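Page 42, continued from yesterday. The earlier attempt failed because a stray header line got pasted into the input along with the sequence. Redoing it now with the clean sequence only.
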Amino acid sequence: MKNGNSAKASFFAAFSVGAVLFSAHAGGGFATGNQANTYYVYLGWAGVLSAALAMLLLTLTMRQAMVMYNSRGLTNHKQLFETLYHPYDKLVWVFELFFYIMVLMAVAAAISGAASALTAYFGLNYYVGVVSVGALVLLLTIFGAGVVRAASTYMGLAILVTAITIYAVGIFKSDDSIMSVMLAGFGERGFADVPEAVFNAFVYAGFQCVTLPTMVACGTIMKRREDCAKSMWISFALNTAALVLSVLMLLSWESVYSAIEGGSVIPTLTICGVMDISVLTVVYGVCLLLCLISTAVTTIFGFVARFESHPIFSGIKSAPLRGAIVSAFIIILSMSISMMGLTNIIKYGYGYCGYLGIAAVVVPFLTVGVYKNRRWFAEHGEAKRTVREITAEPARAAK
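This time it went through. Structure tokens are written below.
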């Protein structure tokens, strides 16, 4: 019985970590439909494969990052990238540049989108919505990794259920069947779009790597390589199911929402409106709000974890207060960027960051990272304890 309880606890821990990545991806990734429309829908059938490949690349990258972080007992993502890039440690600034720009882009899109959702669905003043969302994000980001894991787990479950319901209804009520749309696209283009689909998968995975600092901070409970792998396979299943269903629904409705002015900005909302199902529209509003808030929370948390221990805050003893200051700074700065509009942020801001993410994160972790992790375990032995566990012993003994 004890082993059964241990297995359940292990699965829940892995699920909670996997849900962090799912929740971070949800907002722009598939809830609005904007990212899916920008990177996959125009590719037709190849876009579906591209979406699945992007999620595979992303979760494999996160897996190697968590293994490296936990096995060496590292304490922040700067140390992680110094370990990855060694002996060229200064290359860590390539990731820092990518991370700072991408945080601004992601948070600007998330908070602005969430405030707009509150305005559209509940009639709340936009500026009041911004303050409300910002305050909620602050609360969720300043109290540590445990709160982020818990919040992401429950928001992730709510998002998964509502998103799949919406996509299933949308696909069912479409005038064009998925098969006919995909076969028509294949007949017109064949395999011509496959190279671009592969490239888009790398770009998409690249800019989603902005969540890496959050993932390694929340993933410290994954003690073994097998635990890291389990959490990321769970995340792969969740993310792929939701993103692929989103792409399939958008494919079947593309001719409708693309013909409506502004319909491609949040195409999922446009589709809900065309279907004229009030309950579905309300459910979508709640889902979208949860997705965007979760994206902002998980993205900002990585930034807070990086800077709350900076010497500039040495005079502030309260960790929540330090986190609140850092979080408030990035929220306020991000709002000025939100004036670009959601589509421009995703198409240009995310796109160019994606190129940098390929070079700075995805390719290094899936090549050098894999090699260094395998060599580490070959030298230290699979059964040996991690550095984190060894260094924790004096503290436990003192107690």
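Notes: The longest helix spans residues 342-380.
Reminder to self: strip header lines before submitting.
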